[in-house]
């Protein structure tokens, strides 16, 4: 049973009566029947005691009228859920001439205090108090002084009214806690959905960064084989080897990402670690083997101290820069420059001049640089990119490097 279910069990059924007021009488629950029967029996017991006292001093028509009015008042309590205000006023008036109805009157005041706001309860309670004063003079008790009778009436009315208002306050509190628990559960579900959506977006960006590099190699070398069918056998074999290796690497990367989706937070021995700054050299070597001219200029102060997340971002930025240079400036020399030290931050520059000849059309999504800009911003840094003055393309990023 959840917290909301427990609060719903604690919430008395009278609150449902308030919500359904004016919309028709709700069906009584088992708890309603128990409460109504208990109040009926208590009012009847008080009425019997009052009837025995009345029988000592009255007889004939007066005694019969007391008993009939008392019985009618007790039976009228079954209507207290539907007409609490009218019933309380009516029983207060009846109690003036029929003390036997006093128990039913107190029960109706209690029900009224449970269901109605203080202002309405206050003026009806004042009417009941006034009726109790009048009743002392209309039907006095020979064994008790009038002042004592008035005091007892006031005390009983105040007690049942205060008790009812206390029950009402408690029920309102439980209702508020129930609504708060329901809202908290809804907000928790919403936060979980947002977290899942953000995780999917992050995985999608990661998938793009990982696969774009591999698939670009496939596209470039497949295009070279298409446009140069008469190439020497060694060049064809080299291009075919690059295509095979790139396809294998792409499958490995895709398998790794799918493995993360299936079992987040778990990794097997066959899963490769995420790229870091230490694997940047392997990325450059791979690009050189694919026929690119790449110069890596790294002058970092204590590179081993670069945070893992920052190193991964540097790797992705360099990977995207090399991928774009291979697409749009084949044959041009690409320079990857790393500078920085703890406390000052780390800068990454990827630049290439304009290509010498025509550029083959290689389709792309255009989302790589946007994703890298978001990645750098989330890491606390910034990234800019655009055409260089010499007609080439330059990419510059700064990332924080704590001291």
TrEMBL record:
SUPFAM superfamilies: ATPase domain of HSP90 chaperone/DNA topoisomerase II/histidine kinase
The UniProt record lists the keyword Ribosomal protein: no
Residues annotated as transmembrane: 33-51, 57-79, 86-109, 121-138, 147-166
Reactions catalysed: ATP + protein L-histidine = ADP + protein N-phospho-L-histidine
Residue span, Signal transduction histidine kinase subgroup 3 dimerisation and phosphoacceptor domain: 200-264
Pfam families: HATPase_c (PF02518), HisKA_3 (PF07730)
The keyword Transcription regulation is annotated on this UniProt entry: no
GO molecular function: kinase activity
Principal EC category: transferase
Assigned keywords, A-Z: ATP-binding, Coiled coil, Kinase, Membrane, Nucleotide-binding, Phosphoprotein, Transferase, Transmembrane, Transmembrane helix, Two-component regulatory system
Domain Histidine kinase/HSP90-like ATPase stretches: 312-401
Coiled-coil region list: 167-205
Top-rank lineage group of the source organism: Bacteria
EC numbers for this chain: 2.7.13.3
PANTHER family: NITRATE/NITRITE SENSOR PROTEIN NARX-RELATED (PTHR24421), NITRATE_NITRITE SENSOR PROTEIN NARQ (PTHR24421:SF10)
Name this polypeptide is given: histidine kinase
Source organism (scientific name): Streptomyces solicathayae
């Amino acid at each position: 049973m959840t917290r909301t279910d427990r609060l719903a069990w604690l919430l008395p059924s009278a609150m449902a009566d308030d919500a359904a007021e004016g919309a028709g009488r709700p069906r009584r629950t088992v708890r309603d029947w128990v409460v109504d029967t208990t109040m009926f029996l208590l009012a009847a017991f008080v009425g019997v005691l009052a009837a025995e006292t009345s029988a000592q001093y009255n007889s004939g028509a007066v005694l019969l009228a007391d008993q009939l009015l008392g019985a009618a008042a007790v039976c009228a309590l079954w209507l207290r859920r539907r007409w609490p205000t009218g019933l309380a006023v009516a029983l207060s008036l009846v109690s003036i001439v029929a003390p036997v109805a006093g128990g039913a009157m107190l029960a109706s005041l209690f029900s009224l205090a449970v269901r109605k706001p203080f202002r309405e309860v206050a003026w009806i309670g004042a009417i009941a108090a006034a009726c109790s004063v009048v009743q002392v003079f209309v039907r006095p008790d020979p064994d008790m002084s009038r002042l004592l009778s008035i005091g007892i009436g006031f005390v009983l009315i105040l007690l049942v009214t205060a008790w009812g208002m206390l029950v009402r306050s408690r029920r309102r509190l439980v209702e508020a806690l129930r609504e708060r628990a329901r809202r908290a559960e809804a907000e928790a579900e919403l936060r979980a959905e947002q977290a899942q959506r953000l995780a999917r977006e992050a995985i999608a960006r990661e998938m793009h960064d990982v696969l774009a590099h591999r698939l670009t190699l496939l596209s470039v070398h497949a295009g070279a084989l298409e446009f140069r069918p008469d190439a020497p056998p060694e060049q064809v074999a080299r291009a075919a080897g690059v295509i095979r290796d790139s396809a294998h690497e792409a499958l490995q990367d895709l398998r790794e990402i799918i493995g993360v989706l299936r079992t987040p937070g778990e990794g097997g021995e066959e899963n490769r670690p995420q790229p870091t700054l230490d694997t940047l050299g392997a990325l450059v070597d791979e690009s050189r083997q694919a026929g690119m001219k790449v110069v890596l200029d790294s002058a970092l102060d204590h590179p081993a101290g670069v945070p893992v997340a920052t190193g991964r971002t540097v790797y992705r930025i360099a990977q995207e820069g090399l991928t774009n240079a291979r697409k749009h400036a084949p044959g041009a020399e690409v320079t990857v420059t790393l500078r920085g030290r703890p406390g000052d931050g780390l800068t990454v520059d990827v630049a290439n001049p304009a290509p010498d000849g025509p550029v083959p059309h290689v389709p792309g999504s255009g989302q790589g640089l946007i994703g890298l800009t978001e990645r750098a911003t989330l890491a606390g840094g910034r990234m800019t990119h655009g055409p260089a003055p010499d007609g080439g393309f330059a990419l510059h990023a700064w990332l924080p490097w704590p001291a």
